[in-house]
Amino acid sequence: MGSINTIHVEELTRNYRLCYDKAGLTIYIVPRKDLGSLIMGNGLRFSNEDIQLYGTKIILYMPCTGTIYGRYLVQINNELRGLYVLTADEDCEVITQWNDQGINLKLRLVGSESLIIIVRLMRIGKRRIKPSNYALRIMKALGLSGRLLYADANHEIQIFRIDNWLGAWITGPCVSEVSMGPWSLVFDKCGIAINVMDTNGTQALLINGINTIVIKRHYPSLGKWYELNKVIGPGNYLVVLN
Question: What residues form DSSP beta bridges with 3?
Fold first, then answer.
């Protein structure tokens, strides 16, 4: 895995023939000679097979032989991204599929070209956030009002401080951490957390009795847990996970 900021994407892509960009996925077709040391090491050989990019739900369908290099890390503006390079031994028609984002892209490479695939992994630093419409609908259905304190780039998780607390709802064991898929919420002390909704892949969690929530996420492509943010201050919280 490469180090952050050691790869200059602008230089690699200055002579690109085609660029595709959607939903955190960017793909370039570039001359192979522009890639230099990126394709000098040992890569993963493939031969007429399908490969899922490690740590993502992106699948490459490749009816040819060639090599994939990568899981390099690059920082672009305030985002950390994973970069992969694909070279084919001959002309090849590569299909890139990401069902969650409705992407089904067919690209043709000639033998002297390579594919650069860049996938957004996480945001770095602060940004302006807004609640999603489905989170607002959940709050309305529960009869709650409050303010959004944190949301990730794709609104997978949203944390609200609740103003009109319905404390009578909250009964259950005292916990210091809650895990939901790749997300982990770590509390400064033991608090009560109860799941009030779990339908169609969306969960809603009410939390009280704590002062701080540390928000962590596991990134399989990096093999690490990252602390993304911290919500500070005594209060009652609603967590919406989609």
Answer: none
* Residue given tokens 């984002």 in the structure block: 101
How many helices (H) and strands (E) are present in the chain, helices listed first? 2, 14
Which residues of 110-172 form beta strands (DSSP E)?
A: 113-123, 146-151, 157-162
Token digits of residue 223: 């093999």
The size of the chain, in residues, is: 242
Write down the pLDDT at residue 32: 94
Q: Which residues pair with 223 in a beta bridge?
A: none
Amino acid at 183: W
Residue 172 has a pLDDT of: 76
d(CA 79, CA 125): 8
95 in Cβ contact with 60 (< 8 Å): yes
pLDDT of 8: 83
Instruction: Give the 3-state secondary structure of residue 242.
Output: coil
pLDDT tens digits for range 207-232: 988 989 999 888 765 677 777 788 88
Task: Look at residues 240, 33, 42, 28 and name the one whose alpha carbon lies nearest to residue 149.
Answer: 240
